[in-house]
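Final report, Chapter 2: Outcomes

The project's central promise was a pipeline that accepts a single protein chain and returns its three-dimensional structure in a standardized token representation, suitable for archiving and comparison. That pipeline is now operational. To close this chapter, we reproduce one record exactly as it appears in the project archive, with the input sequence first and the structure output second.
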Amino acid sequence: MDYDQARYSRDDQYEPLLAEKNAARVEIDEEDSPLPAELTRDSVELPDLSEPELARHYTRLSQMNWSVESGPYPLGSCTMKYNPSFTEDVAADPNAAVHPDRSARSVQGSLELLCDLQDYLARIGGMDAVTLQPPAGAAGEFAGILVAKAYHEANGNDRNEVVVPASAHGTNFASAAMAGYDVVELPSDEDGRVDVDALDAALSDDTAALMLTNPNTVGLFERDIVDIAEMVHDVGGLLYYDGANLNALLGRGRPGDMGFDIMHYNVHKTFATPHGGGGPGAGPVGVVEELAPYLPSPRVREKGGNYELFDPEESIGKVHGYQGNWLVLVKAYAYIARLGDEGLTDASAKAVLNANYLASQIDYEVPYDPFHHEFAATAGDRDAADVAKRMLDYGVHPPTTKWPEFVPEAMLTEPTEVENRDSLDDLARAFDAAMADSDEELENAPSKTTARRIDQVTAAREPRLSWRALDDESEE
């Protein structure tokens, strides 16, 4: 592939954008506003654009954005899977347009779908009961920890610690802290897995739970998982499964069979619903039978040939409206039902195959293996962020960088099951081409994208949210 092809130099296509921003404006006076004076302005300026101008503006913006429909999106740990369009058609069916306050008698089909989805997820995870309420993976994680807390409190167990591996997602630490627990950080061993001796030292009568991802953040399966589960249970703690990497296990291994007591499902990572970007999403939670009474209320069950909502006996309460984000759950149901057991098993097989094939085609060191659905390559003495930005110039999206921290200059890569061999070969060539470039080229990258390198810290702390061109902001 010639990475200097003109198709990656599209700056001239976007020159009209600033002109559109500076289009004629209409000033409208506002009087007699019911809002307090400090919340109103004397006038408001709106861009005066025709419909074609507006349509072309947003079409150009869409062309400037990268998406999984543009090409590979190998963000390790984030799992940016392609969302099949048929699930959108299912969710758009008029029969899915159900008001949450309708009676159970009048929405039996919807309740049946939710009940079946609970069953699908329970069987996939090896759990006994599932709630669909949490609106995102992190929200499900927090709800799961609250279930663990309610269980311990109901049994008179005064526990104040949650053990979390150093390589865990940041949400693990946050969820435990938000639930009122002290976080005990667990180091990895030299192989990149849980340090069993360190775990033994960390566990005590104060341990409420160990939060674990399996395979872990660098794609390694925890070979000692059965022993780890026994260690946690021996001190009266619970084993929590972060479902971030379930995509590697579908049809081949179930967290419940490994000894996990609670898990959340990231349906955007595993079952191809849209990646929420803050919402709406879904993060169902599954538990073993002993913890089912503490799940959020209400849940759905079949009784006497009908479907009904019910409140678990010791429920932690409602964590989201209705049964969660209904249309996201419809999409997850459609994806699972369409693929079935064989299709889900094939998806995990291809996810693992693609990761291993890609790693074999790039000239980077991968410190930890054998890995499954993702791998952490190292950029060595180059800055991983610079290499990643240079990859943008070669027409591909780069992987996650600088994390996990125990891999120097990490480039955490997860191609998922959706890419074919040609796509992976293109990605591999971009990896190697970026690494082979000079320091100057890396430091000045990207050079061919619409947006150049930005000051990410300032952009995060002082975001510009106005539609006005920058030179107009002084007028506010």
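Archive annotation: The chain has a mean pLDDT of 90.
This record, like all others produced under the grant, will remain available to the consortium after the project formally closes.
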